Each structure stands twice: as structure tokens, then as C-alpha cells.
Amino acid sequence: MDATGEGRAAGGVDDAGWDVDPDDEQGAAIVAMVGQQIKTRREQLGLSAAQFGEAIGYGEDQVYKVESGKRIPKPGYLDAADRVLDAGGMISATKQRVAEVRYPKKVRDLAKLEAKAVEVCVYANNGLHGLLQTEGHARVLLESRQPAYPLEEVERGVAARMARRAIFEREPAPDVSFVQEEAALRRPIGGRMEWRRQLERLLEVGQLRNVSLQVMPTRCETHPGLGGWIEVLKFPDGTAVGRSDGAFNGRPVEDPKQLRILEMRYGMIRAQALSPGESLAFIEQVLGET
To answer: E strand or H helix at 52, and its extent?
Structure first.
């Protein structure tokens, strides 16, 4: 890592950013607009791509990729471009819009739903839910996928997962309920120290006033969640959307009858899990055993 916290590419040259998702039309349009803005300003000042790249500390090929809309520029790139091109903050001002499209579209869509929800209900059966994961935990999970993700996609995925945790800082705060299988707490993903950090993170989240965190003990022989994870998001206007890989072929559902089925299953799962107080005590016990 360099001083800005952004990685460097081979050869010691800063990597400008992330590849644009070809299926993300909205994101591609934003990146193309910013790239064209930078190119126009550069050409107005009579700078070649090589001269500009040297001035901001990036390779010429990275400059071309950003200006052609093929590469999502990082904040440091935009700030450097604004300074060198004497843009008066005009280029730096695009950082927020660019930051929104740096994450995969499906993650952005999910984050938008979570940001609007007044109630979030989650049962996670195979591992910890993304909203509960530490950065190190999330990175190990993404690095372990097969076929292997390119390094930049791993970092992009980690950043997206961490950005979703803003739901815990929202005002007004939504009501968030998690039920996690015991097995997920006992898998030492990332090694002992990262495992401890993850358990500490669970205790931290579980103590938030708007969060209910429950553990489903392995000794529970059967419950309605054995067919797969469940997630239900409820919105201020009374509508909701739910998904489960154990119902309706895993597709999102909004029909009240289908939602009632997911809510019924989730309610029974919560009833069979440890209470929130018992769950925090259980997590502390596991932490003490690590």
C-alpha cells in the first residue's frame, strides 16, 4: 500500500482504477463522461497523454483507459488530474458519482434497497452475512473463490461489501435482525487473529440498539431455514421484497402471499434460535476459546 491506501501496480506505477462493467450501462456512461471531461481539459492545455500521465504519477496507458471510459478512476487520480489541469475542483467534484459506480451493479442495486429499508430480516445458513463481515474476512472469502477472481476484482468486491455497512450508521436507523448458524462462527476464516476480529465485530454489531443478532445452535435438529438463506427488506411505504434460495427458485418476490411465507419461516427460525442476550454470551464464549 502507498500513503493514500491505494495499491500500486507492477513497476511501481499507481493503478488508475477498476475496469468498467460492460453490462452496467449507467456506470459506463458516467465514467465515459468524466473521462471525456479530463481529456478535453488536457487537450485545451496542450498536454499529451504521456506528459499528463507523468505529471499525475500514472502511466500513459492508464490515462488513455480513463479518458476512453474503459477504466473507473480512483479518487487520487481525479484529485491529481484536477490539480495538474487547474480545473478548480470541477474534476474532483466527480468523485462521489464515480465512487458510486466503482462497485458491481448488482451490489449497488442491493445497497440501494438496503439504504431505503426500514426493516431488514436476515437468516444466513452457510457463512456470515455480508453486512456482518470484517474487511479481512470478506477478502479471504473473495480470494478463495474458483475460478480465481483477478486481484482488482477482489479489492473491488471487498470495498463494495464494506460500503454496505453504512446501513448501521443511517439516521433514522432501520431495525435489523440477523440469525446466524453456529457453524459460521466457528470457522477460522483468515486465521486465528482475523477470526477473533470477526467475532469482536459480531459483538460490536450485536450491541447496537437497532440490531438483533441471534445464533442458531447446531444442536437444533431441524428448523425452517434448512432449505436455504432468507432475506426480507421492508420499506416505508409498506412494500417489501424478499429472497430465499429455498423458495421461489431464489428470485426476488414482492407478492404479499409469497412474502408471508418467508416471514413465517423467518419467525419460526428466530423462535428456535438463541435469544439476543444468549447469542452475545455464546459469541463471547467462542471468542474466549480462540
So the answer is: helix 49-56
Confidence of residue 21 (pLDDT cuts 50, 70, 90): confident
Residue 241, phi then psi, degrees to nearest 5: -140, 140
b/e map of 127-144 (b: 16 or more CB within 10 Å)?
A: bbbbbbbbebbbbbbbee
Give, as one character, the DSSP assignment of residue 59. Answer: -
Residue pair 83/39 in contact by the 8 Å Cβ criterion: no
DSSP SS3 for 189: coil
Residue whose cell numbers read 480465481: 148
Q: Please say whether the beta carbons of 165 and 131 come within 8 A.
A: yes
Cis peptide before 147 (omega within 30 of 0): yes
pLDDT of residue 183: 95
Residue 243, beta-bridge partner list: 231
Residue-wise pLDDT for 238-251, tens only, equals: 999 999 998 998 88
Instruction: Look at residue 9 and tell me whether its pLDDT is greater than 50.
Output: no
Q: What does R_g of the chain's alpha carbons equal in angstroms?
A: 22
Residue, of 174 and 108, whose pLDDT is higher = 174
Strands 175-181 and 119-124: parallel
Which candidate, 146, 276, 207, 16, places its Cα nearest to that of 8?
A: 16
> Smallest Cα–Cα separation from 19: which of 62, 82, 52?
62
* Helix 49-56 vs helix 75-84: crossing angle, to nearest 10: 110
Mean pLDDT across 147-169: 88
Name the pLDDT band for 132 (thresholds 50, 70, 90). very high
Q: Which three cell numbers stand for residue 5?
A: 491506501
Closest by alpha carbon to 163, among 130, 141, 140?
Answer: 130
* Model pLDDT for residues 45-63, shown as the tens digit of each residue: 999 999 999 999 999 999 9
